[in-house]
Amino acid sequence: MNQRKAIICLLLTAATMLLGGCQAKEPTASAVAPAPDKSVTLPSDFATTDEVREKGTLNGSGDNSALELSLSLYGKTYSLGESTVGDFLDNGWIKDEKSWEKIPENQKLSAHSVNVIAKMLKYEETGDKLFISYRNITDKKLPTKDCALSKIQLNGRYDTMFAVNKLRCFGGRLDLAKCTDRQSFETELKKLVSTATYNIQGYYYSTYNKYTVKLKNGTAYIVVRTDSATGRLRDIDISLTLSESIGKK
Predict the structure, then answer these.
(1) Residue 18, SS3?
(2) In whole numbers, what is the pLDDT of the chain averaged over residues?
């Protein structure tokens, strides 16, 4: 009997030791993730504009009503309400197949104040892209190529399309190649406009400086994106839109 009790005790002791070895252990000090190093700081000259929000009006010495709603690119000027889809096609721009696939080549449009949805064009020589909308502002049916431009939208990097190809606005009077930061852009813009509104939105890496210029026959929207650290210009987005009242029947 005593021998049996001894065996049972041995078995219970072994089982207890086995179960204890399977239990989860508390993490040791070396297994705990180190706390973030709060001593690391950005350079003293790093000027982030994160969370900057500002709206206002820019007053200049020019005249909004005297400005032409146009874009100049690769030595050619395209005026909304006057230039046509065909003017782009005759000057080295080609239709993006996917964008234009549902527009019949021989389609004729009736007079209408509503724009055809934006379509992409590519500059055959460089591959640069832009979007155009168009509409018939006459009193007779016209093929697509003869319809007037009603919107031009362009997004471009400063070091390529703007600086190299000398893109300009307002009949060539706003030379974007001269603009290297927000201040230089505003300096050039104030020479031409009497008034423009702006909306600035700053983020950690980029600041979006948005300008709206109302003209007699439409509106120009220009977004100047600058580097939040250096203030240097990164790229510019331009959207020119013809007023719906032009050609309205």
Answers:
(1) helix
(2) 81
Handedness of CA 192, 193, 194, 199 (dihedral sign): negative
Q: Is 13 exposed, middle or buried (0-12, 13-18, 19+ CB in 10 A)?
A: exposed
CB 170 within 8 A of CB 68: yes
Residue 106's pLDDT is 77
Q: What is the pLDDT of residues 168-225, one digit of tens each?
A: 999 999 988 888 899 999 999 999 999 999 999 988 888 999 999 999 999 999 999 9
* Closest to 183 measured CA to CA, from 204, 209, 206, 222: 209
- Assign 3-state DSSP to the chain and report helix, strand, coil percentages, each to 5: 25, 35, 40
pLDDT tens track for 223-246: 999 988 888 888 889 999 999 888
pTM: 0.76
Q: Tell me the torsion sign for CA atoms 176, 122, 216, 211.
A: negative
Task: Please state, in angstroms and as integers, the Cα–Cα distance from residue 188 to each residue in 116, 157, 172, 209, 214, following that order.
Answer: 33, 19, 12, 15, 17
Contact 155, 235 (CB under 8 A): yes
Tally of residues, the chain? 249
Distance CA 162, CA 43 (A): 31
Give whole-number Cα distances, 62 to 67, 84, 183, 188, 195, in Å: 9, 28, 17, 10, 8
Q: Are 176 and 162 in contact (CB under 8 A)?
A: yes
Cα Rg for the chain, rounded, in angstroms? 32
